[in-house]
Amino acid sequence: MGFKNTEGGDEPSATEExxxxxxxxxxxxxxxxxxxxxKGIVRVIIAQAIMLGVVVLGSWLVSGRAxxxxxxIGGGAYLxxxxxxxxxxxxxxxxxxxxxxxTFFVGEAFKLGTATIVLxxxxxxxxxxxxxxxxxxxxxxxxxxxxxxxxxxxxP
Length: 156
Fold this sequence. Notes:
Number of helices: 5
Distance between the termini: 30 Å
Largest sheet: 2 strands, antiparallel
Oligomer: single chain
């Protein structure tokens, strides 16, 4: 049971230890996985930025400047921390520091905490001019940015 490694080839090999098969990847396989992961991360951030641009433009056309700024704040509350987290993941893929499950959970907590802080500060400081439907649409469009990838067939 398992894969056979040809002499000197680039094929992955597998070893059987204690009832399970362990797959050993070649450097070429690892590089291909890193490239694909990097493209997926970058595509998601770009899709979220496009969706934010669409909702900001739509809010501005429908309701004016305050709605556009509200949509920008709502979407930016999630897009900026998400882009920073994506940058950290990319550094982990290509840099000397490896990613771990702990890194992932800390990044997710950072994204959620930052978005919450921005939204609370917006509610507290901008209660006079914030257009809440536009802010929530901005947040929703960025959160669902991957739908653009689904529709275009470019989901990683």
